[in-house]
Specification:
The complex is a heterodimer of chains A (73) and B (459). With 73 residues, chain A is mainly alpha-helical. Chain A has a domain of 44 residues. Helix content of chain A is 64%, strand content 4%. Chain A is rod-shaped. Chain B is of the alpha/beta class. Chain B is 41% helix and 16% strand. Chain B has a seven-stranded mixed beta sheet, with helices on both faces. In chain B, strands 1-2-4-3 form a four-stranded antiparallel beta sheet. A two-stranded antiparallel sheet of chain B has the order 5-8. In chain B, helix 13 links the parallel strand 11 and strand 12. The chains are: A mainly alpha (73), B alpha/beta (459). Chains A and B meet through strand 1 and helix 2 of A and helix 1, helix 4, helix 8, helix 9 and strand 9 of B.
């Protein structure tokens, strides 16, 4: 099953966002580190893109193979 | 004893040790989170799967005098030995890292998350890691980031990367810096090639730089970052597979790892030694055995086969230690090998020097094995023989000591450049020193080179 492109773009680009109010749980006792939060957001985007590419890999590979074959000729 | 000295960070509750029993309080800030984790069935499921330690609610009155503000009191089973990440092998730290992430992913399924990612929240039963902190489990809020990400990097990922990518053992650095290895520090130590890996570039280099260059504006932005649950799960899964793929470096393949396969003993001599050690264990049926200089754990395994409840091994060589942990893992032995230089054992340290206990303070062996070790201490490290025997006898009420004479090829090697060290190191002196401090129950020559085993017990 291939999710629609809308679902995928929501997954990748909607996975990280800046909200108006911060989420601070009252049980939070550890400083998560501001720099570390930004890194998480960066990694979330990269990992999201990689997951999307994997989802569509079976569509990309036949195209690449065709291109490779025509190249060999 | 009141509150455990290591249990002060989280206001949600504390650990208390009363009459050798382990209790955890839940106080007002942790109440709602604990109730949710309990009522969702998560705590029971995680505990049944073996990932989380057991915990039973008991009458609050058991701690009335200790903590009148406790809303709940849980009792946990007592573990055979408390170990710390700076004494774990590479494989143990990696297993603890995976457990932490697996538990976090499980928690998210129940709309719960982990408030931290401390390596000290993991203990070992044999080679199997187990999570011990119930109060780390809190309610998940939509959009929440991975709260313990930085801590996970410092206490799990960075030490593993240090050893895997540079060949430098993480344990001494970790022992000197109890909260782990900072990303900027690790970035300074990694070779350029390692930094080309995109995940190393992000987790180590970028994170280290951002931590060093934070300002008020960036902090305000960071406070508003939200991750979808899918993104948080993706990040956790990515970290899990990255950590699982890290391996110890080739430099940690040492000759000691091969020691038991090399020919210091003939087959007959080997079985005589195994029989001697096994018989002592079978007679004592010890709950806990300490195997000093356990190497790859050959005799630890024999002790378990002959009736020991659990074995804690101590070994300074990284290669032998990794082999021992692999043995314990693969055969599911109740055997935990730890990294330890016995001439400089892990001390009591941390806050008020009571937070992480030293090796002597955690002494709990019923029987101690000191096999093929004493020549390293006395001939190799120049320790006074009488002090070594004192120390050994003080460790446990009974034990097995193997004497390796100066003529033995392994001992002779240590004396190549210092033939005159330890003039009193001989069989008669050892026998009289040991006999003055303990009762010698049995003595047997086990090799043609003159190695002798003593079984002793304190009167």
């Amino acid at each position: 099953m291939v999710p629609s492109s809308r679902v995928v773009s929501a997954l990748v680009f909607g996975s990280v966002f800046i909200a108006l109010t911060p989420v601070v749980a009252e049980a939070q006792y550890l400083d998560p580190g501001a720099g570390s939060i930004i890194v998480q957001a960066v990694i979330a985007v990269v990992v999201g893109v990689a997951a999307t590419v994997r989802l569509y890999w079976h569509r990309i590979t036949p195209f690449l193979q065709r291109w490779k074959k025509s190249d060999e000729r | 004893m009141p509150r455990d000295p290591a249990s002060y960070r989280d206001p949600a509750g504390h650990v208390h040790v009363v009459d050798e029993r382990i209790y955890r309080t839940v106080r007002a800030p942790g109440r709602e989170h604990y109730e949710r984790a309990r009522d969702s069935g998560f705590l029971a499921r995680a505990s049944a799967s073996g990932r989380l330690i057991g915990g039973q609610e008991v009458d609050r009155d058991v701690l009335r005098g200790e903590d009148p503000e406790a809303l709940y009191v849980l009792e946990h089973p007592r573990l055979p030995f408390i170990s710390y990440p700076y004494c774990w092998s590479f494989g143990a730290l990696r297993a603890a890292a995976r457990l932490t992430i697996d538990l976090h992913l499980d928690a998210l399924e129940s709309d719960l998350t982990l408030s931290d990612a401390s390596a000290y929240n993991v203990q070992f039963q044999g080679a199997r890691p187990i999570f011990i902190d119930y109060l780390s489990v809190i309610r998940y809020e939509d959009g929440q980031v991975w709260l313990g990400y930085r801590q996970f990097c410092e206490q799990f990922l960075n030490p593993l990367l240090l050893t895997s990518k540079t060949g430098i053992a993480f344990q001494p650095w970790y022992r000197g810096s109890l909260e782990g290895i900072g990303s900027a520090d690790l970035a300074a130590a990694l070779p350029f090639r390692a930094k080309l890996h995109p995940l190393v570039a992000a987790h180590v280099v970028l994170q280290g730089r951002l931590q060093q260059s934070m300002n008020a504006e960036r902090t305000t932005t960071a406070k508003k970052v939200r991750l979808s649950k899918t993104a948080l799960q993706n990040n956790l899964r990515s970290m899990r597979s990255f950590v699982a793929g890290l391996t110890p470096p080739a430099s940690q393949q040492s000759p000691w790892q091969q020691y038991e396969h090399t020919a210091h003993y003939t087959a007959d001599e080997r079985s005589a030694k195994a029989r001697f050690v096994g018989d002592v264990i079978a007679a004592a049926m010890p709950r806990v055995v300490w195997d000093l200089g356990c190497n790859s754990g050959e005799y630890s395994e024999i002790a378990l086969q002959r009736g020991a409840g659990t074995v804690i091994g101590f070994e300074p060589d990284a290669g032998a230690l990794n082999a021992a942990f692999e043995r314990a893992s693969a055969k599911e032995l109740s055997f935990l090998p730890l990294s330890m230089d016995l001439t400089n054992p892990s001390p009591s340290m941390g806050w008020r020097q009571r937070e992480r206990l030293g090796m002597a303070e955690r002494r709990n062996a019923d029987v101690v094995l000191c096999l093929a070790l004493i020549h390293h201490l006395v001939l190799g490290r120049n320790l006074p023989l009488d002090e070594v025997v004192d120390w050994l006898v003080s460790l446990a009420p009974a034990g097995v000591l193997e004497f390796v004479p100066k003529e033995d090829p392994m001992a002779a090697q240590l004396l190549t450049w210092k033939p005159n060290v330890a003039p009193d190191y001989d069989l008669a002196t050892i026998r009289s020193l040991l006999g003055a401090r303990a009762r010698i129950d049995r003595e047997e020559v086990v090799t043609s080179s003159g190695r002798v085993l003593f079984a002793y017990s304190r009167p």
